[in-house]
Design brief:
This protein has one domain: Endonuclease/exonuclease/phosphatase (Deoxyribonuclease I, Chain A), CATH 3.60.10. Helix content is 24%, strand content 28%. The strands form two sheets. The chain has a six-stranded mixed sheet with strand order 3-4-2-1-11-10. Helix 3 packs parallel to helix 4. The longest helix is centred in the middle third of the chain and has 21 residues. The protein is globular and about 45 Å long.
């Protein structure tokens, strides 16, 4: 089995105890983190020196940032981490790793919110689409993970929060996300919970929105179809942690 978690921690220094607890209790093989809000040199020593993981921390002080952590147990050889040329900031890190005799590309992604610069968000989504399309055309297997900052459908936003002209819900952004998924990928949360209209992963941090489950679905695990067929589960951990996002964890049978 291969266990993968993607999680927008909304500040890794503030959430270091949560991250360490999750690694200890869940022991995921792959961890994709977003919104680090810290440069590598600002990481707490306990995170920068994780003994059981190959780690790539890709961030700037106070803004954005992504990380990819791969367990030594599942990946005994140190992988090569990269961030694609279209990543002009700290929004994506990738690694190609061997899984069950074939190469798999992993990506931890933070799509910018777009509230301050929608054009930059559109450009990033277009570039991500081109990246996914090239992999599809070349027959490469992918898992794109992260906070994509787009609610795929109207039902991915609580009825009380639905606004078609609000960034993250606009038809244009949803069309971009659909194009990315159409490149041979599968929305794994929907594969396992096709009828759940309260499947959210982000909640505004006020008025007990999380406790009442009044939120948005912004965090995705998008594997290639062949890998999606091997998936055993994909679960949102709404009860865990102090971030405004929940970890999303998928389990794959790659034997």
């Amino acid at each position: 089995m291969l266990k993968l978690t993607t999680w927008n921690v909304n500040g890794v220094r503030a959430r270091q105890a949560d991250v360490l607890t999750w690694l200890s209790s869940e022991q995921p093989d792959i961890v994709c983190l977003q919104e680090l809000k810290a440069a590598p040199e600002q990481l707490p020593p306990v995170l920068s020196a994780l003994g059981d993981y190959w780690c790539y921390w890709h961030g700037h002080k106070g803004y954005s940032g992504v990380a990819l952590l791969l367990s030594h147990r599942s990946f005994p050889t140190q992988p090569s981490f990269e961030h694609p040329a279209f990543d002009h900031e700290t929004r994506i890190v990738t690694a190609r790793v061997p899984v069950a005799g074939r190469e798999l590309e992993l990506a931890s992604i933070y799509v910018p919110n777009g509230g301050k610069d929608l054009a930059a968000k559109v450009r990033f989504l277009d570039a991500l689409d081109e990246h996914a399309l090239l992999a599809y055309e070349q027959g490469r297997e992918l898992i794109l993970c992260g906070d994509l900052n787009v609610a795929r459908e109207a039902r991915d936003v609580h009825p009380s929060l639905r606004r078609e002209n609000q960034i993250g819900q606009t038809p244009e952004e949803r069309a971009q996300l659909e194009r990315i998924i159409s490149r041979g990928l599968v929305d794994l949360s929907r594969q396992f919970e096709p009828d759940n209209d309260r499947l959210f992963s982000w909640w505004a941090p006020w008025r007990n929105m999380r406790e009442k489950n009044v939120g948005w679905r912004l965090d995705y695990v998008l594997p290639s179809r062949a890998l999606a067929e091997r998936a055993q589960s994909c679960v949102v951990g709404r009860e865990f942690g102090s971030s405004d996002h929940a970890p999303v964890t998928a389990l794959f049978d790659v034997g």
